[in-house]
Specification:
The chain is of the alpha+beta class and about 350 residues long. The chain has five helices and 16 strands. The chain is rod-shaped.
Length: about 350
């Protein structure tokens, strides 16, 4: 090796040794005043729990209020329905006939009340007035006849029996006149207060019967109580259903636009939960965040696990404390269906009273 190349190699070795020595001295030197030695980044404490999407209003179960044969079913699972939309229809021949009969009874009772209140027709009133006038004149003639008989008896032309018979005819004629007069007055003034009150009560009773019949008829139409999506359908045309407590649910509805997240925290970690804590939601085993929210409610007691209880990796007999959070999906993710399982990450505030880990 020639001299210039040897000199270059010596210079390179000396430079490397100097750099190594300087780096060693810098590591061993104490930090300057006010400087902080670098340390590991502090991680955020959090609780990881099993979670799922649940409806805010719960799952609505639709049961029949009357029994009969199902005529038709108009919806299928997955259909979106509006409130009061017809879901199914039960045969209604008997209920329709009952409503028609009760409406006829109401019409008869209303007519009776009208007659009792207003009285008879004008033509009938005129006939009763004429009859009253005729009987009054008959009573006057009977009085004149009785008076003549009295005079003739005083002159001994007739016997006392003739006077007594004339008096009886007068009393009968006056009674008929009074009866006709009262009928004419009743026709003009209407029925008695007791009759009018009884007629009104009959109208009220008939109206209540019509309302009852309409309610029974309306129960043959199964309507959606809320706007939402049909989750399950358990009825088909031709099925015979009842209305007792053992009747199975016909439909299950849910409002997918009003959802929240329910998560279950282990019993030992439950005391660290608090209202307002931030929560992130991710798919199980994936780091991608699909939604976020804040703790809104915490159950007052612990209970058995329900989310993931069928998973062999999770203790199904452990006690948990349920909690709920509002759920705001991320913009880049699709809306999650009801009962979809997730992983909840509850962000905890640092506990200053907790002893540091060794």
């Amino acid at each position: 090796m020639n001299a210039p190349r040897r000199i270059a190699w010596i210079a390179l070795i000396v430079t490397a040794l100097g750099a190594t020595l300087a780096w060693t001295l810098l590591r061993s030197a104490p930090p300057a005043s006010g400087a902080t030695a670098p340390g590991p980044a502090r991680s955020i404490e959090r609780i990881v729990a099993q979670a799922q999407i649940v409806p805010v209003d719960g799952i609505i179960e639709v049961r029949p209020l009357t029994g009969g044969r199902v005529l038709r079913v108009l919806v299928h699972p997955g259909d979106r329905v509006q409130a009061n939309q017809l879901l199914a229809e039960i045969e209604s021949d008997l209920q329709s006939a009952a409503v028609q009969q009760r409406r006829a009874d109401l019409g008869v009772a209303s007519e009776r009340l009208k007659l009792a209140t207003e009285g008879v027709r004008p033509e009938e009133q005129a006939a009763l007035t004429a009859a009253a006038e005729a009987t009054r004149q008959e009573a006057e003639l009977a009085r004149d006849h009785w008076q003549r008989e009295q005079q003739l008896h005083a002159q001994r032309f007739v016997s006392e029996q003739a006077v007594i018979a004339a008096e009886h005819d007068l009393q009968a004629a006056e009674a008929r006149a009074r009866e006709a007069e009262m009928r004419a007055r009743a026709a003009q003034s209407g029925g008695r207060p007791q009759e009018i009150q009884a007629a009104r009560e009959q109208v009220v009773s008939a109206g209540a019967a019509v309302t009852e019949g309409k309610v029974a008829l309306s129960r043959t139409r199964i309507l959606a109580p809320i706007a939402g999506v049909v989750m399950t359908r358990n009825v088909n045309p031709g099925d015979i259903i009842g209305s007792d407590v053992t009747t199975p649910t016909l439909f299950r509805l849910v409002d997918p636009d009003r959802v929240e997240a329910r998560f279950e925290v282990e019993e030992l970690l439950a005391p660290r939960l608090a209202i307002g804590q931030r929560v992130e939601f991710a798919l199980p085993g994936q780091p991608v965040v699909v939604g976020h929210g804040h703790v809104t409610r915490i159950a007052p007691q612990v209970e058995k696990r329900s989310i993931g209880a069928d998973d062999a990796r999770i203790r199904a007999d452990s006690l948990i404390r349920p909690a709920w959070s509002d759920f705001v999906p991320e913009l880049r993710t699709e809306p999650l269906p009801v009962n979809y399982r997730m992983e909840a990450r509850v962000m905890l505030e640092p506990d200053r009273n907790r002893a540091p880990a060794p």
